[in-house]
TrEMBL record:
Signal peptide: none annotated. This is Enoyl-CoA hydratase/carnithine racemase. GO terms for biological process: L-valine catabolic process. InterPro entries: ClpP/crotonase-like_dom_sf (IPR029045), ECH_dom (IPR045004), HIBYL-CoA-H (IPR032259). It comes from the Bacteria.
């Protein structure tokens, strides 16, 4: 078990508190294993009727996976390969699957930063669960900014967002707040941070089986105006283009601040991984959760072989020069063959590390 994952049971609700505040609760392999063990135990525990996941810090529920760990172990091995990396992504994605199909209400309090791997432990809850946002919520799938792609089930929940909203979020990696999260369908209810103490008291006082309904009655459904809703037609028009290059060309012809912000973000992202992300989301739209996670697991292996994420993490958090040397360096040099290689099978179906996901 991890020292950064705390648990207790209150009124038949299992409460998980992530407690790695200095790293914004970035997930380590130990944390992934602890979360998996806890949820496997509680799903069979007749004394637990619901699960709440929260944080000891108002700054973040979870900022993602531990990308320093990715960089260190990836660079220590030929072609970015490492048994620890293999274990991390296999076990993280299996955890995302477990949460998605959890047999009891799973309630995520998405206060503060919720990005990447944090989305994986918040978005995957069952239909009977709840995703709570506050005015402090900073939500994103920013993987293209570090030379990766939207994983942890992102190929499923982004590709199933209305219209081209998921493509917009996946290709730009931009951060959204509570109102946009509710509009996209990545959150269910809004609770102002000033009411979180009262929410905690409600959780403690309500039997687990009644908790989702009680929180819905307590919460506020409206979190203000959604910028994505206001720009929905623009997003669908631009991001429905038939290639990343066409999307960017379309944005170049739109001088609104919203379009130019999206374009400037994409100009900083990995050209190759934007193209891979677009293809991933197109494929994910017709796949179930298990197959999306299996596909993402394949792409992770290909990505570390290529080294794009190692360079992205170096530039962002190791050297902090914010000048990644993407390979290839520009969109016009990305070929269909480069993208196709990411989707070429690594394992036969019977040997896939996530072959047992149902």
């Amino acid at each position: 078990m991890s020292e950064h994952v705390l648990t207790r049971i209150a009124n038949r609700t299992g409460i998980i508190t992530l407690d790695r505040p200095k790293a914004l609760n970035s997930l380590s392999l130990d944390m992934v294993r602890a979360l998996t063990a806890i949820l496997l135990d509680w799903q069979l525990d007749a004394a637990v009727d619901a699960v709440v996941i929260t944080s000891s810090s108002e700054k973040a529920l979870c900022a993602g996976g531990d990308i320093r760990f990715f960089h260190d172990v990836g660079n220590a091995s030929p072609q970015g390969g490492s048994a620890l990396l293999e274990d991390f992504f296999t076990e993280e994605y299996a955890l995302n699957h477990l949460i998605h199909f959890y047999p009891k209400p799973y309630i995520a309090l998405m206060d503060g930063v919720v990005m990447g791997g944090g989305m994986g432990i918040a978005q995957g809850g069952p239909d009977c669960g709840l995703r709570i946002v506050t005015e402090r919520t900073k939500m994103a799938m920013p993987e293209v900014n570090i030379g990766l792609f939207p994983d942890v089930g992102g190929s499923h929940f982004l590709s199933h967002a209305p219209g081209q909203l998921g493509m917009f979020l996946g290709l730009t990696g931009l951060t959204i707040g509570a109102a946009d999260a509710l509009y996209v369908g990545l959150a269910d209810v809004f609770v102002p941070s000033a009411d979180l103490a009262a929410l905690q008291a409600l959780i403690e006082a309500t039997p687990g089986a009644d908790l989702p309904a009680a929180i819905r009655a307590f919460a506020i459904q409206h979190a203000g105006e959604s910028e994505l809703q206001a720009n929905r037609a623009r997003i669908d028009a631009h991001f429905g283009a038939d290639s990343v290059a066409a999307i960017m060309a379309s944005l170049e012809g739109d001088d609104t601040p919203f379009a130019q912000k999206a374009l400037n973000a994409m100009r900083q992202r990995s050209p190759l991984m934007m193209c891979v992300t677009r293809e991933l989301l197109l494929r994910g739209a017709s796949l179930d959760v298990a197959d999306c996670l299996r596909l993402e697991r394949l792409l992770v292996r290909r990505n570390f072989e290529h080294g794009e994420v190692l360079e992205g993490v170096r530039a962002l958090v190791i050297d902090k020069d914010n000048a990644p040397q993407w390979n290839p360096p520009s969109l016009d040099l990305v070929t269909d063959a480069m993208v196709a290689r990411f989707f070429a099978p690594v394992w036969p179906a019977h040997a896939h590390p996530l072959r047992h996901l149902a």
